[in-house]
Design a protein that fits this description.
- This protein is of the alpha+beta class.
- The protein has a domain at about 160-200 and about 275-395: Thiolase/Chalcone synthase (Peroxisomal Thiolase, Chain A, domain 1, 3-Layer(aba) Sandwich), CATH 3.40.47.
- The protein has helices at about 30-45, 70-75, 90-105, 145-150, 160-170, 175-190, 195, 230-235, 265-270, 295-310, 325-335, 350, 355-370, and strands at about 5, 10-15, 20, 55, 85, 110-120, 125-130, 140, 205-210, 215-220, 255-260, 275-285, 315-320, 375-385, 390-395.
């Protein structure tokens, strides 16, 4: 449990998420993340010199990943600042915030900048030497498809872990998965109401190249697929005999987000509203049985609650990273929730999954919903590659 780590109100942003092979497909995620963060810092009149440490989160390989964190720090204007590069798939944002809170709590630094960025589009194609292979043939890896389609420990594609979880719960039907997907889409539409009033609370546009000397702004999410009842019913399961169609799962995307994590005093100084306080309370993690990744959010949430000394009754807002319908349906069954009890304003099932920044955007939306509702505790939980999961609790007051 943390007592000293705070996030300034509006001391964070998320970019819109772009569809796979869309507007951001040719951008280096490290350079784009740093450039977006630099523009955001200038927009907020925040001096990059205040940053003492950069915690850089990225999962998908990019050119010059070896230098990712110090390179990004220099590009965003913190040239004298070191940092660390965290790669933990869907849990990257959660873990980066935990490390930032830990650093502030122990006094190792007074202000950390968490920058989370990824580009699933045009994933790297890696060649590994294989001197013992016949004829010296190499070992190759297509980063996106090979890893999404086969966990080397379990030997299963990610969608199969969702099917395994649905079967283990018992009684989960395709119709239930379709209905949850339809609900999550309707919740996302809440964020677009009144000319995107909710999204404009936190969303910052990305500037990207469209030619050698021309740029454009991506100001809204790209690649959102409506979930209409009749279309959901007509869509066949992704795996024959399964319960998840392509509409009942997320899609790969591109984007970035960032947070400032600092002391209470500095957070108040930087806050857009001095009366609003955002405190990081606790972090939790888990690893479940092989091939049951979609079940991981529940024990992660339970551990996060235990670490905070709270129960689910203390939580006002819940957000999840839900790449598959089974994630949320399992959570409902195990924790006594209804699907409509959580993920107001959207979730990764609908707005997409760029890996590192996904949980960060969910946490930002959770904070903004808590502010709208007058404060309280918020719980984020989600699964990650390797049948793992992570959770985070924040408290908003004022």
């Amino acid at each position: 449990m943390y007592t000293k780590a705070f996030i300034p109100y509006r001391g964070y942003y998320s970019s819109p998420f772009a569809r796979w092979q869309g507007s951001l497909q040719n951008e280096n995620a490290i350079e784009l993340g740093a450039a977006t963060a630099k523009r955001w810092l200038a927009h907020k009149n925040f001096d990059p010199a205040m940053i003492e440490y950069v915690i850089f989160g990225k999962t998908v390989g990019q050119l010059h990943s070896f230098y990712a964190s110090p390179w990004a720090a220099a590009m965003l204007g913190a040239e004298k600042v070191p940092g660390v590069h965290i790669s933990q798939a869907c849990s990257t944002s959660t873990t980066c915030l935990n490390l930032a809170a830990m650093g502030v709590e122990t006094g190792n630094f007074g202000l950390a900048f968490c920058l989370l960025t990824d580009r699933c589009s045009n994933g790297p194609h890696t060649i590994w030497p294989n001197p013992a292979g016949p004829g010296g043939e190499v070992i190759s890896e297509n980063w996106m498809m090979d890893n999404f389609n086969a966990d080397p420990w379990v030997g299963l594609p990610m969608v199969q872990t969702a099917e395994n979880t649905a079967a283990a719960i018992g009684g989960i039907t395709k119709e239930e998965c379709d209905e949850l997907a339809r609900l999550r889409y309707e919740q996302y539409l809440q964020s677009l109401a009144n000319d995107r009033e909710f999204q404009k609370r936190y969303m910052f546009p990305i500037e990207y190249k469209v030619g050698r000397n021309k740029t454009a702004l991506l100001e809204t999410d790209e690649g959102i697929t409506p979930r209409k009842k009749e279309e959901l019913a007509a869509k066949k399961p992704f795996i024959p005999g399964g319960v998840h169609s392509s509409f009942a799962q997320t899609h790969p995307a591109d984007g970035n987000c960032a947070f400032i994590v600092t002391t209470r005093e500095k957070a108040r100084e930087l806050s857009a509203d001095k009366n609003i306080e955002i405190q990081i309370i606790s972090y939790g993690f888990t690893r479940v049985d092989k091939g049951f990744m979609a079940a991981a959010p529940v024990p992660a949430a339970e551990k996060t609650l235990e670490n905070a000394g709270l129960t689910l009754k203390d939580i006002k807002v819940i957000k999840t990273h839900n790449p598959f319908a089974a994630n949320d349906l399992n959570m409902c069954k195990k924790m006594g929730l209804k699907p409509e009890d959580f993920n107001n304003y959207g979730s990764s099932m609908i707005f997409g999954h760029p890996q590192a920044p996904t949980a960060g955007r969910c946490i930002i939306e959770m904070i903004e919903e808590l502010v709208i509702r007058g404060g309280g505790y918020g719980l984020f939980t989600g699964c990650a590659a390797g049948d793992t999961g992570a959770g985070l609790i924040v408290k908003v007051t004022g």
